[in-house]
Amino acid sequence: xxxxxxxxxxxxxxxxxxxxxxxxxxxxxxxxxxxxxxxxxxxxxxxxxxxxxxxxxxxxxxxxxxxxxxxxxxxxxxxxxxxxxxxxxxxxxxxxxxxxxxxxxxxxxxxxxxxxxxxxxxxxxxxxxxxxxxxxxxxxxxxxxxxxxxxxxxxxxxxxxxxxxxxxxxxxxxxxxxxxxxxxxxxxxxxxxxxxxxxxxxxxxxxxxxxxxxxxxxxxxxxxxxxxxxxxxxx
Length: 235
Description:
The protein has 235 residues and is an alpha/beta fold. The chain is built from 9 helices and 5 strands. It has one domain (36-230): Ribonuclease H-like superfamily/Ribonuclease H (Nucleotidyltransferase, domain 5). The protein has helices at 16-23, 90-95, 99-103, 108-119, 129-144, 155-162, 173-179, 190-210, 216-231; strands spanning 41-48, 58-67, 70-80, 124-126, 152-154. It is globular. A 5-stranded mixed β-sheet has the order 3-2-1-4-5, sandwiched between helices. It is 42% helix and 15% strand. Residues 1-9 have low confidence and may be disordered. The chain starts with 15 loop residues before the first helix and ends with a helix.
């Protein structure tokens, strides 16, 4: 599919160079039956000014790559976005990004173009992925006029699917890290949380292979089936 099918007609004003970079972005790859050990995945975490999906802003992006069945530390992305007039709020106490860091951040167009170039056509993993998918998608629409089509898989859904014996209800990232005795160097930092999520994902992928669920396509199909069963009325 041409990149021009993804760009809204009311695309924000971009320089010629930025338009060329936007047009050169590859189409998102659909989930496939590629074995997990041969799949490139980008594990994402975002920091935002709050949890309001329509009002709050994307402040920072952290991402690492799983490739060849391992975390590739040569492929990492970290960026704080500039937001004019940003002020400290309750969220600042959580993510720790000072208004001065936001003021000195990267222009959102440049930051988001750089991230999409880093992402390429790869699928995305995140913990509670629905929030990250929405916030990233909205930022891309507002800054680039770009419609995000990359598939997301939610590690918060994969964990109970692949570990049905674990009694963790409504568990957060900290709960699953503690269960597998994983140590996060820092929490509520986009890059550190992305790394912790990637480490958790590798454990889950090992379990998936032992259950003959050795591709993102099969895992996604199992997740969809689990969602349907959860929505079905009990008899």
